[in-house]
Amino acid sequence: MLTNSQLQAQWMPFTGNRQFKQDPRIIVGAEGCYLHSDDGRKILDSLSGLWCCSFGHGRPEIAEAIAKQAKTLDYAPQFQFGHPGAFQLAERVRDLTPAGLDHVFFTNSGSESADTAIKMARAYWRLKGEPAKTRLIGRVKGYHGVNVGGTSVGGITPNRKMFGPMMEADHLSATLLPENRFSRGLPPHGLHLADQLEERIALHDPSTIAAVIVEPMSGSAGVIVPPEGYLQRLRAICDQHNILLIFDEVLTGFGRTGADFGATLFNVQPDIMTLAKNITNGAVPMGAVVASSEVYEAFMHGDTPAYIPEFAHGYTYSGHPLACAAGLAAMDVFEKDKMADRAAAMAPYFEEQVHRLADLKHVVDIRNLGMAAAIQLAPHPKEAARRPWEIAMRCWKKGLYVRFTADSLQLGPPFIIERDQVDTICSILEETIPEVD
Ligand code: PMP
C-alpha cells in the first residue's frame, strides 16, 4: 500500500487529485483484458488502458523485445546519428500505412505527434513559397492531445479554458446531430457539415490556411463517428483550395475501427497522419507522424549543408531504442494475429450488446464504430459531469474499469476480448447506470 506521503508527492494527470488521494485506485499488474488492483482484484479493462493496449496487456513477445533491447542498446542519439531499430520500425509503419504515406518521423506521444504534424504543415508551406499559409482548422470536440498546437486545434472546452489564448485556429462543428441519436456505425445525417469548411476558407482566404486536422473518428470526446461521405468531402475541399489534410489516427491507428487505419476504412488519403498508442501496444511511450512524399520532398529540396537539418524539430527520445523494439514486436503481433480482423469480427456483437443499454435511465445517445463506443448521459441538473464519474467509480468497485468524460462513458476494449467479457462489461453497466441520481 502506498503511504500518504507518496500519494501526495505525485500531481496526477487529468485526475481529481484530492478525491483520488482519499480513495486511491491503484493498478499493480495487467494481463490480457484485465488489470490487477492492489487489493488483489481482477478488473476488466473496457478501454485498453487509454485506448493504447489494444492487442491485450502483457504480450510476452513485446516484453521480451524490450528487455533484450535494454541490454544491448539502451539509448542512441538520433540527431545526426541513428540506430537500426528506428529505420526498421519506420519501414514497417510505412508499409502498413496507406501507399503514398512514405516517411515516418518519430515522437513520444500523441500530443507530440499532433504538434509535430502542425509544425510540419506550416514549414511545408514556407518551403513552397507560401509563408502566409499558417492558419489551422480543427473541429469542436476534436482532441489532438494537450500540447499548445494540439490544444489550439482541439475543441474540448475544459481542456482549453484554463489556459487563455492559444495559437490561432478555427473550428468546424462536431458532427453530432440530434437526428443521429442511437444510430449505429456511420450516422446517416450531417454530410452538409463538411461544407462549413468552404465557409471558413472563404472567411480566411485559402492563402492563409495551412491545414485541416481531424480525427477520422473522434474518440476522446465520446466516439463521434463521421457521417457517410464527410471525410471524402473534406478531402475534396482541401484539394480544391490547396490545403493539407491531417488525419489524427493516434486512437484509430492499428485496428480500432476494424480496418488498419481510419484512412483505410474511409478510403480517404491524408497528406499527414499522426500515430501513437497501439504502435507499441502501450508498452513504451511512442508516437509517429507519417508524411506523404510530396510533403517530405519539399523539405529535401535545395542544397542545405549537412550540418543544417531540413526540419529543425525532434525530441531527445525520438525513435528511442526501447520504443522501437516494442514497436517492432507490436507490429508483429498486429500482423500475425490479424488484430484489425479480430476487431472487425467482434464489432457486430459489441455493437449489439452496447445498444441494448439504450433504454436505461439517463442514457440519451449511444454511438459506436468498430471496437469503440460511447454511452452519452443526460447531465445531472446541478453538477454537470457528476453522473459519468460516479458510474465509473461504482464500476471500479464491481470489477470494471470504464473511462468517463464530462457527458459520456467510453468503451474501447482490447481486440482480443471474448463475447462473455463483452457481456460482463454491459451487464455491470446495465446495473450501475440507473443506480446513480
Ligand atoms: N490525438 C488523439 C486522436 C488522441 O486520441 C490522443 C489521446 N487520447 C492524443 C492525440 C494524445 O495522445 P497522448 O495522450 O499520447 O499525448
CATH class bucket of the largest domain: Alpha Beta
Taken from the alpha-carbon principal axes, the silhouette is: globular
Mean pLDDT across every amino acid position: 97
Q: What's the architecture of the largest domain, going by CATH?
A: 3-Layer(aba) Sandwich
Count of helical regions: 16
Number of strands: 15
What ligand species are in this complex?
Answer: 4'-deoxy-4'-aminopyridoxal-5'-phosphate
The CATH H-level homologous superfamily of the largest domain: Type I PLP-dependent aspartate aminotransferase-like (Major domain)
**From the helix content, strand content and strand pairing, which structural class follows?**
alpha/beta
Task: State the major sheet.
Answer: 7 strands, mixed
| Distance between the first and last residues' Cα | 32 Å
Largest beta sheet: what is the strand line-up? Answer: 4-10-9-8-7-5-6
Q: What fraction strand? A: 15-25%
Organism: Spiribacter salilacus
Keywords: Aminotransferase, Pyridoxal phosphate, Transferase
GO molecular function, one term: pyridoxal phosphate binding
Pfam families: Aminotran_3
Describe what is shown at a glance.
The protein has about 425 residues and is an alpha/beta fold.
Question: What would your notes on this structure say?
Answer:
Helix 10 links the parallel strand 7 and strand 8 (244-248). The protein has 437 residues and is of the alpha/beta class. Helix 4 (60-72) runs antiparallel to helix 13 (321-336), helix 6 packs across helix 12 (293-300) and helix 14 packs parallel to helix 16. It contains 16 helices and 15 strands. The structure holds 4'-deoxy-4'-aminopyridoxal-5'-phosphate (PMP). Residues 51, 109-111, 114, 143-145, 215, 219-220, 248, 250-251, 276 line the site of 4'-deoxy-4'-aminopyridoxal-5'-phosphate. Its cofactor is pyridoxal 5'-phosphate. GO terms for molecular function: pyridoxal phosphate binding; transaminase activity. InterPro entries: Aminotrans_3, Aminotrans_3_PPA_site, PyrdxlP-dep_Trfase, PyrdxlP-dep_Trfase_major, PyrdxlP-dep_Trfase_small. Belongs to the class-III pyridoxal-phosphate-dependent aminotransferase family.
